[in-house]
Amino acid sequence: MEVVNTIGRRTTSIARVYLTPGKGSIKVNDRELKDYCHSEIHQTIVKQALTISNTDGNYEVNENVEGGGVKGQAEAIRLGIARALVNVNAESKPALKKEGLLTRDSRMVERKKPGRRKARRRFQFSKR
Question: How far out from the chain centre does Cα 71 lie?
Answer without folding.
Answer: 8
